[in-house]
Structures are given as C-alpha cells and as structure tokens.
Amino acid sequence: MVGMKWVDGELIPNPNAYWQITESTRSMVSDVVELAEAEGWSVKQLADALIEDAAFSPERAMMIARTETALADMAGSMIAYRASGVVVRKKWLVGIECCPACEELDGETVGLDDEFSDGSDAPPKHPNCRCSIRPIVAEAEKVAKNFNPDQPRDENGKFANIGALADSARKNPDRAASHLLGAVSRSNVEAVHKNVGVDLSGYKRKANDQELRHAFNSHGDTKKEKLRGQRAITSADFGKLGSITNKPGTVSLSPKDWRGLPCMEYVKEIHGETYHYVEARNDRAAEVVFVSLRVHVGKQK
Fold first, then answer.
1. Phi then psi dihedrals of residue 7, to 5 deg
2. Which of these, 105, 143, 154, lies nearest to 125 by C-alpha position?
3. Residues 114-137: pLDDT tens digits?
4. What is the pTM assigned to this prediction?
5. Which of 17, 34, 168, 292 is deepest in the core (most CB within 10 A)?
C-alpha cells in the first residue's frame, strides 16, 4: 500500500514524490511489517523499527506503520466476514477529518465481494486513511434492533455484561484478569477529539479486575459516599459506560494514573445524577483502560 495509489480500480505506484519509495525499500518495509504482524507489535513499535531500519522520518514512519497495520487488520476482517456465512454486504464509514475522496464514499454500501465505486475492496484507500467498513448481515433490519456493536466482550471475544464483570471481580479478590470491552466507537472517537484533541481511532477499550475492584472499594460504601455528596456505585452503574463515553457531557484531561499513563475524565448527567468516569490511555498498545467511576448526587455546575 505504501508508495501506491488506486487508479481506475488498479493499485499502481504513486507518481507523487512524497509517497514514492524504491522497490528495495518497499521489500524491506514488507519484511518488517510481516515480522510485526507475526509478533503482534503495536503501531508505535512498528514505526520505531521503520525509523531504525529504513531511516524514515518519525512522521513518515508512523504514517507507514498506521497504514500497513490498518491494511492487515482490514484483510483479516474481510477473511472473517467471508468465512462467517452471514455477512452479505459492506458499508464504507469515514474516519474523522477524512479527505474529500473518502468523504464521497461515506455510507456507500455494496455486496461483500463487490468493489466500491473507487475500485477498492475496502479501506485503507490511501496512506494514513482511517476509514473502516461495517459488515451487514442478512436480514440486517431485524438484527439491528437487537445488536449493539459497542456491547462489551470478554477476554474470549464473547459478548459480556460489564456490570457482571465488575461484580465478579469484586467477588473474586484474587482474580487478575483483563477484559476486552470492544473497539472505541466512532461517536466516542469524535467526542474525545472534539473536547481534548486526542485521536482514539483504532483503539480498544478494556478493564482489569484490579481497577474494577478498586472502584468498588473507593466508591462503593454508602456512608462514606454520602459524606462526599455522592452515592455508592453499583454493578448497574458500570453498564452506563457506553452511554457515558459515546455521548459525554464533557471530556477533559486528568492526572496520570499509577502506571504513568495519561488519563481522561468523562462527565455526564443521567437521570439527575452526575457520572464521572476516568480511563487511562495506552498509546503504545492502542488501548484505553478503565481507572475509576463515581456518581455525584444531583447536577454539578
């Protein structure tokens, strides 16, 4: 993909000097990317390797790393969609601050094995492209009413109830599992970018048992929370994280967590109560991680 562009449905060398690379460099990049995929490197690790091995500038190395990682992820997704037997169509979704060429494709829907109007099978359309596709299953109209793409998943990829996960973590003090809660949604990405200028495109959200227990220990005592003007959190409050992150009232940067990771705080009023949710951002792993949750009684100014 790097050093190439789509023209009339065909991927050819990009004539723009900014994107061009030699065949030997392209071969080297391919080898490094293959190693990164095999060993599960993060985008940052891949970019660092490209800077070292090919003497790319940090900016260009990150562009190549993001593009090649996106290409590999999308190829894997397409294989899974075709193997599922239920995905019949695909819909193009643009990323934030997309280019005019990609914007023309936003919402375009074609058959799973068909090409989009630009001749491509799927994103990325160009270097640094952050578009994605949404798989559409047979009888999607019926399925969509009951399907929530942001519903949490456990470490095995199965749908999970984060409230149940939190409750289970509290009841099992020796457990130290990590739980994948799914990809950061597009609406969440846009809200964070608008409020604090941070781009979470391609990030995943997870929660660790230790932090879930800590939230209960810190904000689960009725008497202590009442003195703070708050109420004790319950497992049901964790189930509101999707609503809080997808459509927050505000998002702001907050102090680093105990690991030294930068944090963000979401604030949202729900039914007369004000929820404060904090998560840490691990840019190397492209993850956001649960840190804390508390609930203030009444509205806050």
1. -135, 115
2. 105
3. 888 888 888 888 887 888 888 888
4. 0.50
5. 292
